[in-house]
Amino acid sequence: MAEFGRTDGNGSDDDFDDWKPPPPLPEGVKKEVVTESETKNWKKPKAGDDVTVHYVGSFLDEASVPKKEPEEGEEKKDAEGDDAAEVNKMFDSSRERGEPVTFCLGKGEVIKGWDLGIASMTKGEISKFTIAPEFAYGEVGNVPAIPPNTTLVFEVELISFVSKNDVFGDGGCEKCLVEEGSGFKHPKQGEEIRMTYKVAQKKEGTVIEEKSGLDYVLGSGELGPLQKVVDKVLGGMNEGEKCCLTCIKDYVYKDTAYGDITIEIFFEKQYEVSDCSLMQDGSVMKKEIKEGDSEARKPQDGWKCVLRVEAATDGVDPLPGFNGPKDLTICCLNGNVCDALEGAASEMKTGDQAVVTCTKVKQCCEAKLGLADLVSSGISKVVFTLEMLEVVKGREVYNMHDEDKVRVAEIRKMGAGNAFKVQRFELALKRYKSCLELLGQSDKLSEETKKESKEMKLLIELNKAACYLQLGDPTSALTSCNVVLKDDRFSKKALFRRAKAHQQRNEFVEAIQDLEKLLELDPDNKDAMLMIPQCKRSLKAADKESQGIFGKMCNGLGKMKQTGRIAPEPKKPERPKELTEEEKTNVAVTFRIEQKLEIGERLVVVGGPDELGGWDIEKGLKMTKAQLPVDLMAIARARESNKPMPQNNTWEAMIDMNESEGRVEYRYVHRKKDGDHWEDGDKHVMQLAAMGSSRVRCKDEWRKAYSYDG
To answer: Among the ranges 67-81, 492-506, 556-570, which has the highest mean pLDDT value?
Structure first.
């Protein structure tokens, strides 16, 4: 018996090759769900998938049932008599045959109503579809079983479907889902996974390549001719997923006799890679091999843990002298193991297994493992294989009283100081930050303890600045010094360390200013007296080098017309004169921002203080285009590459504000040509308290903008 639902060449002439089921169903296809599928079966088949269904087909009404003529010798029955023939509205059933039907969805192999309706189902669902003639067999019908212009009813059960996908859209590689994975995260280029794959000839079944448990980095090129296809497919797979690819002849292996091939892929695991270095600079990267107890906690500062070091290699070969495997008992961040292991241990839970790669070999020198002298060995990296055996839970911060937090912070500060003395600056900095986090959670303190906490915070900021200077991060050191000077502008250590930060940033004028201010407070400070001549020599050398560069540029470019104003050479710093009382409490503020304006538009700074108009745009501080030195090198590069000349889109405004304003909020306003429409950016903040006779430079970004119509 013919399988109904299939077109058999007598159905619609529609071309289904590129057809995709549009939601919702058209009026001619009505759906009634008889049995819902399980909630876990949320996916629906799409065009190109192989679907397997059971169905029962029937006519909508008795009038549509074809009249069956009696066979020869059979007596014709009276339809109105007691022996009237029973009208059977069902015309076909796969259930009666005991064989489900499998076909490719959306390719015109069945009537259009099936292609549309089944695409709306999920696995295990049973639905009844009432299908109008134009979505069934139309005006032609399927004679003699289906008369023309007949509405049909199908009860369909979607038993299963095999998802297929044309990977590149060229018909050369088709993906077939074998087993679904879990989760929603897909691997990206540069990420590492574990996979198994097998390549075989489709016809003969001969295995061409096969690898099991392969650790593979997407985009690494390790798979040779398989690279393009496998990377593309893996980028859409989930962990635990299995699929099979079918590639046409020569699609992967060029000029071979393999013919069509199949590639079976099992995406076993996606490795979680995280930065566990103390400075979060990417020098110590942890790749999780096995996750331990999901309910367990990572060790906090001062907690004890037991870490097993299974192996130590240079990435290939074992390190000479390594005496493991060995179990190390660690008091977290107390410095009793090397920095690389300190960082890794603080990011592992009980039962976690990981491979840790460190590119700063000095941080891996650990005498307990026989690795006391790695620096002289000439290796470029160290790879540890680790397992966290136990984490002994210590006292939780949230269980401490505020007074206790101050005491614990004091102990941690002493530990950080000990680390600094042995030149473990990264570990010291990590502990200083831990102290500040602890003190930041202490709100309800007695006046005496509150004062002690404040003094400790300032001291920690000073020590942080010292760490940053040793680690070559003068910008962060500058920030820490400013925190101290905002509260105590006469801090000698803060002035000296800020001067060193300026020196490292090649800001020699600012460094000299800080040093001279320090000498006013401490005329016998030998360090400042030695450092000032160094900064002056460096400033002179920098000026001379700049003049030499500009001279060569001018000789090379010839005579050029200068439309901008060249900034004068930096003057040698003069000893500051005695300031008046008003000048001592004033802060010179420069607002500066990059913003391209059209002719007729302008920029304004507005804020809370009267000097900034009290948020009134009409009274705000108007900005003018900054006078910048001509960048001859940029002009030369533009001429050589035939690109537009560099434009000056820097706007600035300068004003004196009193330090009594304290914390000042402000924002930039872009006034349009019509004057009634403007845009403003997010609020910015500056702190003027305790900064009298200083200068604040606000080099801001516009950030997101809001538009208003006045």
So the answer is: 492-506
Q: Which of 4, 16, 49, 55 is catalytic?
A: 55
Decide: residue 250, CB within 10 A, 0-12 exposed, 13-18 middle, 19+ buried. middle
Q: Which residues contact residue 309 at a Cβ distance below 8 angstroms, ignoring those fewer than 6 apart?
A: 324, 325, 326, 327, 328, 341, 369, 384, 385, 386
Strands 586-594 and 695-700: parallel
Q: Which residue has the tokens 């909630």?
A: 39
Q: What is the DSSP string of 295-309?
A: T--PPPTT-EEEEEE
pLDDT attached to residue 551: 62
Catalytically annotated residue among 103, 135, 137, 267: 137
Cite the beta strand spans of 248-314 per DSSP E: 261-270, 272-275, 284-290, 304-313
Strands 353-358 and 586-594: unpaired
Distance CA 688, CA 691 (A): 6
Alpha helix (H) residue ranges in 155-285: 227-234
CA–CA gap between residue 501 and residue 232 (Å, rounded): 48
How many CB atoms sit inside 10 A of residue 293's CB? 12
Work out the angle between the directed axes of helices 632-640 and 526-557 (0-180°, nearest 10). Answer: 30
pLDDT given at position 706: 43
Q: Give catalytic status of residue 137 as yes or no.
A: yes
Q: Is 92 a catalytic residue?
A: yes
Nearest to 672 by CA among 681, 680, 660: 680
| Higher pLDDT pick, 396 / 691 | 396
Other C-beta atoms lying within 10 Å of the C-beta of residue 211: 12
Distance CA 592, CA 700 (A): 6
Identify the active-site residue in 4, 49, 59, 92: 92
Spell out the alpha helix ranges (H) of 40-132. Answer: 94-97, 112-118
Supply the mean pLDDT for the chain: 84
8 DSSP 8-state letter: T
| Span 590-611, average pLDDT | 85
Contact of 341 with 365, CB cutoff 8 Å: no
What is the C-alpha radius of gyration for the chain, rounded to an integer number of angstroms? 39
**One-character DSSP codes across 208-241:** EEEEEEEEEETTS-TTGGGHHHHHHHHTT--BT-
Cβ contacts of 151 within 8 Å, gap of 6 or more: 59, 60, 64, 130, 131, 132, 133, 136
265 a catalytic residue: no
Beta-sheet strands, E only, within 61-191: 90-93, 101-104, 126-131, 152-162, 164-166, 173-179
What residue ranges define each of the domains in the chain, with the CATH number in brackets? Answer: 1-65+87-162 (3.10.50.40), 166-270 (3.10.50.40), 273-394 (3.10.50.40), 395-471 (1.25.40.10), 582-709 (2.60.40.10)
CA distance 473 to 615: 37
Instruction: Clarify whether 154 is annotated catalytic.
Output: yes
- Please, which residues have CB within 8 angstroms of residue 623's CB and are 6 or more apart in sequence? 591, 593, 602, 603, 604, 605, 651, 652, 653, 668
Exactly one of 4, 49, 111, 508 is catalytic; name it: 111
Structure tokens of 112?
Answer: 């259009």
